[in-house]
Design goal:
The structure holds two protein chains of two kinds. Chain A is mainly beta. Chain A contains no helices and eleven strands. In chain A, strands 2, 4, 5, 6, 9, 10 and 11 form a seven-stranded mixed sheet that branches. Chain A is globular and about 40 Å long. The relative contact order of chain A is 0.33. By secondary structure, chain B is mainly beta. In chain B, 0% of the residues lie in helices and 46% in strands. In chain B, the strands form two sheets. In chain B, strands 1-9-8-3-4 form a five-stranded mixed sheet, with no helix packed on it. A four-stranded antiparallel sheet of chain B has the order 2-7-6-5, with no helix packed on it. In chain B, strand 5 (53-56) and strand 6 (61-64) form a beta hairpin. Chain B is globular and about 40 Å long. The termini of chain B are far apart. The chains are: A mainly beta, B mainly beta.
Chain lengths: 114, 112
Amino acid sequence: DAGITQSPRYKITETGRQVTLMCHQTWSHSYMFWYRQDLGHGLRLIYYSAAADITDKGEVPDGYVVSRSKTENFPLTLESATRSQTSVYFCASSELGTDNSPLHFGNGTRLTVT
Amino acid sequence: LAKTTQPISMDSYEGQEVNITCSHNNIATNDYITWYQQFPSQGPRFIIQGYKTKVTNEVASLFIPADRKSSTLSLPRVSLSDTAVYYCLVGGPSGSARQLTFGSGTQLTVLP
């Protein structure tokens, strides 16, 4: 089925460890996004990508790294996890570049940093 | 950035019409207004999108006044399953994707 999938669904890691959250979409949308959601803050944009090999910072990029070697994948890496990065992470995709297509979200990854 | 402001929460009863207003005073000429619905443990889901006047689909209506500085999402005859957080988002194809930031949303609770 076409869609956007995130993995893992749940992840527990320790402070200082590297962790990568995966995002895969089957629509071939040009734009992909990573958001984090915390109580009281709504959804905050971490990074986005307009196409393969093109990425840019969002509102809260510190402590995160992204890459996009293929159109369909947009992994998010926490190089040295901190407790403040405990959150729910959502990936989204869209065809913003060609029309005003809305964002399509995955079901999120709940990350706990101990 | 077209910052948005919404009420933090609203309560309603089953069968009533619910109107949620979003303020976006510095909306740009080419910006669209999009509303999303989010249930617990799920990603936001697209509800409706508009540019001006009124848009209606099978689940909601969107009212946008001439100055476009606000918009109102209208949910007719809500049910318990409409309990969710509702977000408005302002942006457009000519703007930067970096502008696609969500506000805190409106928690709608539908009571029996």
